[in-house]
Amino acid sequence: MSINFKNRIFLGAAAIGVAGTMGAAAFTNSVSFSQASQTVGYGTQTVTGATATNVAYKLSADGTDITEVDVTFSGNVSTSTVQIGFNGAALTESCSAGTYTTGTPGSTAVVCGGLSQPVASTTSTNISVN
Hints:
Blueprint: H1 5-26, E1 44-48, E2 51-59, E3 65-74, E4 82-86, E5 93-94, E6 96-101, E7 107-112, E8 117-118, E9 124-129
Parallel strand pairs: 1-9
Antiparallel strand pairs: 2-3, 3-7, 3-8, 4-5, 4-9, 6-7
């Protein structure tokens, strides 16, 4: 059985279409976070002493102040001292480490609450784990 020129073009185009679809599917995977988008000023976020897998900011009712920062760390930091500071200032605010959730590698949720950091003047967030 021979394949004529017209059929070769059709088969070639079909193969390219399938490969393109498979390639597109490979590039559509993404990492999910608790919120699709959250803009809290513009600047940098630095975490030292542990690996943060998620950082979420909670704002005041009018959206002008950061009132809480919730951080999820990879591994067990439940007995560590966690502090937060803004704009290069000293790390003056203590955070409350939650319970370690076992797993590979597991995680610890930390809450930095009682804050009143103005969003408009926030250029950087610094979190330290000791």
